[in-house]
Amino acid sequence: MTNQTQDQPTPAIFDSEADSEADADALRALRFCTLFEQLPHPVCVLVDGQFVHINASALKGLGYAEQTLLLACHPAQVSPQLQPDGEPSHARMERYIANALENGERRFEWVFARADGATFTAVVTLVCFTLMGQQALYLLWPGTTQYLANDAALRASEAKLRALYEAMGDAILVLDDGRILDCNAVAVRIFGCASKADLLSRHPGELSPTQQPSGSNSLLLAKQHLDQALRDGWHHFEWVHKRLDTRQPFYADIALSVMHLDAKRILLAVVRDVNEHKLAESALRQSEQKFRAIADYSASWEAWFTPQGKLVWMNVHSTELTGFTPEEYIASHNYFSMMVIEEDRPMVLQKYVEALSGLNGSVECRILRKDGSHFWALVHWRPILDSEGRHLGFRTSTQDITANKQAREELAHAKKTLEAANLQLKAQSSTDGLTGIANRRKFDSAWEAEWQRAVRHGFSVALVMVDVDQFKHYNDHYGHLAGDDCLQQVARILDHHAQRSGELAARYGGEEFILILPGLDGVGAGAVAQRIRAAIEAEAIPHARGISGVVTVSIGVAACVPRQADAPSSLIRAADTALYQAKHGGRNRVVIIAAQL
Fold first, then answer.
1. How many other C-beta atoms lie within 10 A of the C-beta of residue 592?
2. Which of the residues 511, 512, 537, 539 is marked catalytic?
3. Is residue 511 among the annotated active site residues?
4. Tag placement on the chain: N or C end, fewer CB within 10 Å?
5. Residues 411-466: pLDDT tens digits?
């Protein structure tokens, strides 16, 4: 590169005009992100005024453990409601964002609020760049209030700046008025210089061949790039440099940004050697024709991307699925927004970053059609590697899963319906159809369980057997419908007296009912039985042929503390015996007997 001042018409940068602004934007985003990820200072990425990425240093500074807690938040949400002069944080930040988007950069003092409520003041810089065709901003600050007090001294400290350069994995050059003011060790190595002093003694023009691949004069073309960086605050492009020891050219990605040092504007150049990537791209282009012949016959929508995320190829299935041709996608500066429905973009963007890093993966998302509709798609991606394992980019394979997803949803709905039906059937199988309380089957299983529980824990259990007095005469006199209604009223009263855990009221057969009362002895169960008898008599259900003019019941009660050798049926027989005695002792009474097991 060079910084000479001759004015010439702007020539093309490369032989091929196909490297669009979208490519430059994608490369620029990747390089700039890489630069700041390696910095110890906090850095965040804003899109549409919201955080889409926060590095570990920023999370630590703001007091948050996970990036997900801040994604989609506005910077004002990590600030006090008002800045020190009383202006609302949201309004001020919106003004600064608009200014940065218009001018490329904005620097200001800002008060942040940590997650624990503590506040700190920092010098914040907003830097505009393009991320996947969208305007975005880097929001970064070098430290807290203590740093602010020393900011002027730190910016003036050449030692601090050099420490930053030496920590970078890329070559760093500081340029001013046609001179190389400083560089890091990586720059000395990739340019093939004997020492740092050797490189600093060179004119920037010595680091490039006479002409670029497009045929343009390197000095004139370099001036145009430098002027654009000074004008816009930032500029990214691809360049061919040369080593000074071997004179061999090599491809490089250049990121120029305007910096301020001692109140003077200088240019910071980040130079990345991409010669291996260029060779890999050449190999990729050579094999691309073979792949296309195969991929066009694939049943999936296939696409290829460079390591920087540039879309370079897509098969014809895109037209079948979306209405957009491959050429429309490739020519677009914002193919991402063309493809993915807005609500799914944050999720898919995170997956896109994984693909850029060389990971396998998949995601379900909604893909836009040209007519404005959308469909559900399953997108798989995998890295493309050459024979030596070098990363050449990644490929995606997309399938329409709308019908499959609908089938899955219908299956899930059917499963829920079936589960509800099974629960209903289970309830019906254990419920007496007339009275709505437990049936004989439910009683048998519940009684076995309560009996075994009483055996294990050594507590008493009681049975209360109930029979409606002279129910046959009731049916003969009032009819079966009235008889059914009578049984339902009796069942309701019994169920009301079986509310504790383990208690159960069941229809035992005909006009006979039975209650399980765990934890009660004969006296306690007898008291419950008396309350039941009195409640049924108090209902005053007319019974012209009954013993007292209303419906009454006879009740037998038996209780015991069961042993392992005892049979559950023994207590049922005891309660039945007590019931027999109550009926033959005059009815409308309770008889309690000591169980003989």
1. 23
2. 511
3. yes
4. C
5. 888 888 787 777 776 666 789 999 999 999 999 999 999 999 999 999 999 999 99
